[in-house]
Amino acid sequence: MSSVPHDKREIQDQDLDHDFTNEYAGSPEPVTVEDAENERAIEKKLVRMLDLRLLIWSFFGYFANGLDRNNMPNAYTSGMPQDLNLQKDEYNWAVTLFFIGYVILQIPCNAIITRVKPSIMLPGIMFLWGAVVCFMALVKDYRGLYALRVCLGISEAAFYPGIVYLLGSWYTKEELGTRTAVFVAGSQISGAFSGLISGAISQTLDGHNGMRGWKWLFIIEGLIAVFISIFGFFILPDLPGNTKFVDGELREVALKRLHRQGKKTAVSGLNWVTFRNLLGSPYILIYIIIFSIMQMGMGILQQFPIILNKMGYETSFANYMQAPLWLFAGVVIICQGFLSDHKGPRVWHIVAGGLWTLIWYIVLVAVNGGHLPVPLLFVCVYMVTPVLGISPIMMTWVNEFYASDMETRALAIAMVNSIGNLAPNFANVKAWYVMDAPEFRTGKIVTMILLVVMVILCVTMYAMQRMGVLLPKPAHKIENENLEDEKADPSLVSREVFKN
Description:
Elements: H1 8-24, H2 36-69, H3 72-76, H4 80-84, H5 88-104, H6 106-112, H7 118-135, H8 142-156, H9 159-168, H10 176-204, H11 213-235, H12 248-259, H13 272-279, H14 283-297, H15 299-302, H16 304-310, H17 315-320, H18 322-342, H19 346-366, H20 374-383, H21 386-401, H22 406-431, H23 441-466, H24 483-488, H25 492-498
Helix pairs in contact: 1-12, 2-9, 2-10, 2-11, 2-12, 5-8, 5-22, 6-22, 7-8, 7-9, 7-11, 9-10, 9-22, 10-11, 10-18, 10-21, 13-22, 14-21, 14-22, 14-23, 18-21, 19-20, 19-21, 19-23, 21-22
């Protein structure tokens, strides 16, 4: 089988992982861990270490990511348009330009992360985007703002798919949904604090040392990312086979528990198997469509401040109402992730989230022609938050489905997130047209239809996977491996994921 040549810079550590795989294959017992209770104790120690190092850092990293990516509205209300002489279209372009680099570079960046150390790459890009946000305080006109927004999108592109990939490289399917949900909740919780941070800066620092509040906003939120990134260089793990502080019995248990679920932990390099797994079946397209629909389902949450404002409430009240909503959403997301780890196949949690959201969108459309009383509006908006929990469950499903090949898994994660985020950015402009506020009838009806489509696609795809239709297969990096053995080896991950 053809594959890219070995890169001796990083393959050396990865070979340790592969050697263990070969040594362990066919052996029902760990190589050095014989006592089952001792093994469980080591596994608990490993998971606790991962939670303290990888999970907590990822949560705060995505918290900073959410602050820096979504701080333009807060800067807008803190004097930026007047200082930079921004017109409406120029501001909208500044917001939109972020997504050019963010979407385009996710796929190549996640291909790179399989060849470099995540403990260097992920904190490095966080440090970079924090610096970019700080420099945004120095811009003099919209041209400088445009350039730095593009740079921000480029520097943030690798973070989300990179963390999802790294979580899937360590945690088992009984753990991964909860951890992915905790990570994603970081961004939702940042939405709760962003308005509070902006308000505090405007009240205390606006005009301090001759700088407007929006400049202080960029500096402080950029420095938050820089500060968090520094810790990452020291605490973040790489992969199970080459992390220095995971060795001996810890490494053996880390590898064994992944191999037991059919997860490959050795890098094989991009080859024809990678692209066959991605493009030779409809699964990646279906995952992208489902993820896009989930993003569309967030419409009512994103437009909530506008709805309140159009109903006659003060802008400050509408913005403050975001804080409890996103805090509640963060808790809901984590609960959904936990349930998906412990209660049945993940597909049914996505279906349940879609149907639950559909019910409340029907209420939003049907009651009083869409002119809901304010208490009922609040209830409906809060009840729609489970649509956000579909995102980490979906990415966990992708992580598990493509777990038989590391490169396929990395590219699949990036494709689902990048393309899945791109389509809604265009569709929402028409579906959730701001002039339709506060009813947004078109957006609600379109979302209802798409949620039905999402449920049908989920059930169809799960049935195909259960029947073994075009499942992904593993690639191997050992040059003298027998091709017949590869053909005879069905996807281990597919059997493991779908047999329950």
